Amino acid sequence: MSLTIENLHASVEGNPILKGLNLEIPAGEVHAIMGPNGSGKSTLSKVIAGHDDYEVTEGRVLLDGVDIAELEVDERSRAGIFLAFQYPAEVPGVSNANFLRAALQARMPEGEEIDAVAFYKQMYAKMDELEMNRKFTSRAVNEGFSGGEKKRNEVLQMMMLEPRYCLLDETDSGLDIDALKIVAKGVNSMRSPNRGFLVITHYQRLLDYIRPDHVHVMADGRIVKSGGAELALELEKSGYDFLKQSA
Amino acid sequence: MSATFASPALKEFDTLNWPVRTEENWRFGSWKEANLSSLKPIGEGQPAPLPEPLDGFTRLVIQNNTLVSGECPAVSVVDQSFGPISRLGSPKLAALHAAQSKMGLDVRCREDLSLEVIYLISGEGLCLPGMVIEAENGAKVRVVQRFLSTDDAPATVVTATDIRIGAQSQVTCLVTQELNPQSKLIRFADSTLQESAKSKLAVVHTGAKWVREETYSTVDGSEASSEILSVTLPTTGQEYDQRTLQHHGARNTHSDLLFKNTLFGKARTIFSGLIFVDEGAHGTDAYQTCRNLMMTDQGEAHSMPGLEINADDVKCSHGSTTARVSDEEIFYLMARGISPRNARSLVARGFSVEVIERLEDDQLEALALEVVDRKFAIAD
Q1: Biggest distance spanned by C-alpha atoms of chain B
Q2: Contacts with A161 from chain B: Cβ below 8 Å
Q3: How far does B352 lie from chain A, in Å, by closest CA?
Q4: Helix (H) and strand (E) counts for chain A?
């Protein structure tokens, strides 16, 4: 059981961004990707999610052994991939509750309806864990939310949808330390032998709260270095200068 | 009584011309649709299953030109038109109503009232209902008008509503229109607000092949406030042509117009709006926004917002936008497992919801949403 990325090449409008990336995230593990700006970290998460601005030119992504190249964005989500966005979209006029219900309903067999009472009970319990005010259920998705509220909302969705592989794209950006702890607590509560995580971040501090099993450094569209949690500390101390030296 | 009333009206009707292409008030509009010269009056109406009643509302049911059920002490049935005046391009059609309407409701409220009027339209021909609503003495009045077809015949409904709101009184009016796709609706909606009066006048159009709507709101007393709201969801073969005028005739008045059109297929919409501020109407605060959401590349939305300000010290703004469904929003929803079709529907529904929520009335909002959802279920 793993999310496996093999020799992945991807371009935007003809410009190659990912240039032969290999990575395996077995279920049960947390992998962190760090790297300088422009190294392709966010692109990687969007390519896995299936964003059609990105063209996969070579390589493949396997979800528990199955190539997902032919799956649409929504099909990938229902198959178990979850992307927590760096900049979550605002959806005016669509309440958070209706949005989550629609997302859960999409996972139900044809003709079955989700149980509204159970849905609200579950949602409120998760919101309490994330210390989210219940008024957010009736507010339009992400509209007028602060940066921190948006990120909590991403984690709420992740907790409700219970995906098999979670991609967190700079979930720590825009969070103060208290919000960071709460978000990390939510993520940690979801860690399980059946679930893998890919955590993209610029800063080691997130990894103080979400302890990774492996840390990878990404540069110029590839993984250039891998190690244990201590690699993040090393990067925090000495930066990415070693990339220039090796270049 | 109707004979003496109708005779001069008929005379006036005869002297006027049907709309023509060159009239500014018919710019982009399908003026030929407005020529009703060949139409005969509609026949007897037919009974049909009624929608669920609104809790706490008095219900009147009208089949074509006949009140068939319901009564309300505040409402009188009259057999003539109140004589609407078109100031936005359709004097011939207004005169037609004045000359030929045989069915009107005269609603006079000195105390709070919640009234639901169901118009069941059936058969081919011309149907001309009308309504005057007068709210006085601080009354809070809620009126729902629902236009429903009970068959597939091509009816033409020419309807006029005149809402007169006295000092400190309030009227919230929701009109829903779900006529069959062979029918036409021409609607005159006038309102006049006195001192500190408030109005919320909303329409939801999902039916009919062609709608021409002329909305004229006169804010004539200081501290009065008029909100004009519209949600439309036309599909291929439907055209909604809405002309509005927000007329500020007194100091310190407020008006806010928000129209949102969601166009499917080859639908057409036309919006022309003017904010007109009289000399001396200082302290006017007026807004006008028309937004079009294009669900395909084949729709056609025309917007012509306008301002004419003859007073100092006013705050006025107008704007119009036309946009496609945001790819970013769709990707976000799909990334949560929602199918592309449902994602687009959710975004488009949300676009309409923003207007509907402005009603600030749970029952009316629920009804408006029900109408919108019925259309989303079939629109593509």
Answers
A1: 68
A2: 336-337
A3: 7
A4: 9, 12
Query: What's the CA dihedral at A235, A237, A243, A245 to 10 degrees?
Result: -150
Does A28 reside within a domain?
A: yes
Considering only CB atoms, B337 lies closest to which of A85, A94, A106, namely A106
What single-letter amino acid sits at A221? G
| A227 lies in some domain | yes
pLDDT tens-digit map of B20-47: 989 999 999 999 999 999 999 999 999 9
Distance separating alpha carbons of residues B63 and B151, to the nearest angstrom? 12
- ipTM of model: 0.95
The answer to whether the beta carbons of residues B266 and B236 sit under 8 Å apart is yes
* Domain range enclosing A29: 2-89+162-246
Domain coordinates in residue numbering, chain B: 2-327
The residue assigned the tokens 């409904």 is B157
Rounded distance between C-alpha atoms, residue B105 and residue B133, angstroms: 8
B-chain CB neighbours of A72 within 8 Å are 334, 340
Structure tokens, A136? 């957010």
- Could you tell me how far CA A28 lies from the centroid of its own chain? 15
Find the CATH number of the domain harbouring A195.
3.40.50.300
Residue B54 one-letter amino acid: L
pLDDT digits (tens, 9 = 90+) for B107-162: 999 999 999 999 999 999 999 999 999 999 999 999 999 999 999 999 999 999 99
A102/B335 CB distance under 8 A: no
**Phi–psi pair at B27, nearest 5 degrees:** -55, 130
Domain membership flag for residue A23: yes
Task: Kindly give the residue spans of alpha helices, DSSP state H, lying in chain B.
Answer: 2-15, 91-100, 327-334, 340-356, 362-378
User: What are the two backbone dihedrals, phi and then psi, of residue A82, each rounded to the nearest 5 degrees?
Assistant: -130, 125
Of A188, A185, A159, A183, nearest to A172 (Cα)? A183
CA distances from A221 to A44, A104, A242 (A): 8, 34, 16
Task: Kindly indicate the confidence band of residue B4, based on its pLDDT and cuts at 50, 70 and 90.
Answer: very low
How many folded domains does chain A comprise?
1
Q: Taking CB atoms and an 8 Å limit, are B347 and A51 in contact across chains?
A: no
Structural domain includes residue A221: yes
